[in-house]
Design goal:
- This is NAD(P)/FAD-dependent oxidoreductase.
- Residues 189-349 form the RsdA/BaiN/AoA(So)-like insert domain.
- Its cofactor is FAD.
- There is one protein chain.
- This protein folds into 2 domains: 4-188 and 352-407, FAD/NAD(P)-binding domain; 193-342, no CATH class.
- Helix content is 31%, strand content 24%.
- The protein contains 12 helices and 21 strands.
- The radius of gyration is 25 Å and the shape is elongated.
Length: 408
Amino acid sequence: MSNRIIVIGGGAAGMMAALAAKEHGSEVLILERNDRVGKKLLATGNGRCNYTNINLNINNYHGNNPKFSYVGLSEFNVDKTIEFFEKLGITPAIEENGKVFPLSFQASSVLDVLRYEIEDRGIELITEAQVSEIKRKNGFSVILKDKTTFIGDKVIIATGGMALPSSGSDGSGYTICKKLGHTITDIFPGLVQLKLESNFLRSLDGVKFFGIAGIYIDNKLVLEDKGDILFTSYGISGPPVLQLSRIALDYLNKGKNVELKVSIIHTKTEEELFEYLLNRFSFMPKKAIEAGLIGLINKRLIIPILKEINIDKEKVISSLSKEEIRKLTNILISWKFKVVGSQSWGNAQITAGGVNTDEVDNKTMESKIVKGIYIVGELLDIDGDCGGFNLQWAWSSGYIAGSNAARN
């Protein structure tokens, strides 16, 4: 008796689910709304496809119950992922922080080998097929917007979330899952640039520096990260900011007071920097403070910083009080801004929130509400940090779903 599995969505999780189901002996059909599969995959890792991370830890995952992901990530783990892709032709290149890329450093390489495999294994693929709903009757009827219907024994929903809608992720999967009886948690952009409240954003726009960013919730530091930070006309960007955005937006949605701290100088303690400034300024008593900061920080930061702490840029260094030098020290170590929101879905790398994981079996990815329906990847209320963790979740959840849908 054949087992026909329909996979909705030809992204990372969907392609992996289809390959796993076929490998376990099922007949498989992928329905992809775009004109080709894997569109979003091409944008990952700045077009280089950071497809996993050797330093993976359960703490890299978030959601109402991050531990939900543990079984899948353990069963189809990082080693198995690297081995799987190596057999397809992808030679791994491990970079800083454990990020794994194809040695070609082209996301297209990963997509090319997956597409080859789909075709080679005889998996049926229909593109420009937008699913509107699933009905249960003698198996499942998967109905497209144009009313074309496909019949299958099992259905794997891998439509992705809301992030990067230009790639086809428009949240339609949430509507499909809701119609099947699932609940969707609050969803918001993840790994996204933050909007700040400040009078200086226009003059800071484009200023980039290597520093530390931290998130304060109700005046308490909850998380910080280090790397390239970029001020923009709307707020702030850069890898550390993207990494912190999830926690910032989560608390902002809960009505908390959220602040972002930047440490422009992070290599000295506050006391060390204070002493250093006293010493530095002793060599240039006649200079105006504006000129006295050149060579210490980015020139375009000087005026906004002096305005923020109410020091006239023309003030001669010898007339600065110790209290003013202390203020300057403090802002260079910890400049705080109020977080007021984020850029839109078009700029977000992932979706935070999704289908409630209490309604899905984490050993199989099968719905507890409708047997024979499997839900994978970004559609679920699981999201990872930046650095290959989200793609690893796509591979793991897709593989578990495809294997189990075929076995049952």
